[in-house]
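Researcher: I'd like a candidate sequence for this fold, 383 residues long. If you have to choose between options at a position, lean toward the conservative one.
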């Protein structure tokens, strides 16, 4: 049976339970209380009142009303207002009649006068209507609360779907721009350098004067610097190397570009390796990219601001999320130091994904960045 149908059936059952429980509880309280009050009043007047029989008669009315409310389907959401009102009125009248009939069978009354009959029937029906009305109020309140919870869950789902679409689009754009920089732009720069080399190697009448040759050599070196450093660095920043293979290879490639003067360590748990298996990765490109960006930002800050000599990266799985820890032995900073803009942006991204990013540091004792990134494939679906 489809999940939506099961949820609808369970909602109807829950509404029925709430209606019957609330109405039955109120009416039972009236049943016991009224019998006790009658016994006390008549007892003070010297009369003999069968309290137990009155309570039994009242409880039969409670049972009768509950059965009628359940059978007539008053709790069904498709019932109109007139149907509900008619069902409640009918249940009250029937319950009152059953109560009085029980009183006669239990000899609570023997040949009662008309005034007693009318009073018992009206009082029983009034109590039943009141109890059923309170039950309906409780049921409708529960129904409204359930609708609000469902609407909130749908809103959260729409937000998550929109966020996933934005993340996928960001990855696509980053990849296309990175491939464009790494491919077509680098090729154009290589062709320009080749033409400059041709001019510099010119002989005879095609040879350039030395001042011009020096200027072209300078231009050539600038273009090579742009191609080797700026274009490649920008391409890697947009879409890290080895990201298509996996998160761990991308982090390893990132650490491999750090100068050898800095001691780098990478620790990855077995469950992370299984999660990031290149043959069947359970991490999306968005999750891989965000994880690598966290490590890249932490290392960049450690080298640029902390002047670290040791950088330690640890990746593990905690519950349904990746935990990324980047520690360094740099200069650290105090509480009055501002958070770098890149780190603040990553923290916002992680919060949107349901994760978080924490930075702790002590002046002179290094910095530790801990990021928690929820993984979609690890989340247990709600029942």
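Model: Candidate sequence:
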């Amino acid at each position: 049976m489809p999940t939506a149908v099961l949820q609808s059936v369970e909602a109807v059952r829950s509404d029925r339970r709430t209606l019957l429980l609330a109405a039955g509880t109120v009416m039972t309280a009236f049943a016991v209380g009224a019998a006790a009050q009658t016994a006390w009043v008549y007892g003070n007047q010297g009369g003999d009142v069968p309290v137990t029989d009155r309570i039994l008669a009242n409880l039969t009315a409670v049972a009768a009303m509950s059965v009628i409310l359940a059978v007539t389907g008053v709790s069904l959401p498709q019932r109109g207002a007139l149907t509900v009102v008619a069902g409640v009125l009918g249940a009250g009248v029937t319950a009152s009649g059953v109560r009085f009939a029980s009183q006669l069978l239990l000899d609570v009354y023997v040949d009662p006068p008309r005034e007693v009959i009318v009073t018992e029937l009206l009082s029983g029906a009034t109590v039943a209507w009141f109890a059923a009305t309170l039950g309906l109020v409780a049921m409708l309140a529960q129904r409204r609360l359930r609708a609000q919870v469902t609407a909130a869950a749908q809103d959260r789902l729409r937000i998550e779907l929109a966020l996933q679409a934005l993340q996928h689009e960001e990855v696509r754009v980053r990849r296309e721009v990175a491939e464009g920089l790494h491919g077509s732009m680098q090729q154009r720069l290589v062709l320009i350098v080749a033409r400059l080399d041709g001019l510099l190697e010119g002989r005879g009448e095609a040879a350039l004067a030395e001042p011009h040759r020096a200027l072209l050599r300078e231009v050539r070196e600038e273009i090579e610097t742009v191609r080797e450093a700026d274009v490649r660095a920008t391409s890697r920043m947009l879409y890290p190397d080895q990201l298509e293979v996996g998160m761990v290879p991308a982090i390893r490639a990132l650490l491999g570009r750090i100068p050898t003067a800095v001691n780098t360590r990478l620790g990855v748990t077995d469950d992370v390796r299984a999660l990031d298996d290149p043959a069947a990765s359970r991490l999306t490109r968005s999750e891989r990219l965000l994880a690598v960006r966290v490590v890249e930002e932490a290392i960049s800050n450690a080298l640029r601001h902390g002047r670290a000599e040791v950088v330690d990266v640890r990746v593990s799985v905690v519950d349904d999320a990746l935990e990324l820890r980047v520690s360094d032995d740099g200069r650290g900073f105090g509480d009055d130091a501002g958070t770098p803009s890149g780190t603040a942006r990553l923290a916002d991204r992680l919060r949107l994904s349901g994760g978080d990013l924490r930075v702790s540091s002590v002046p002179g004792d290094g910095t530790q960045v801990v990021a928690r990134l929820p993984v979609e494939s690890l989340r247990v679906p709600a029942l």
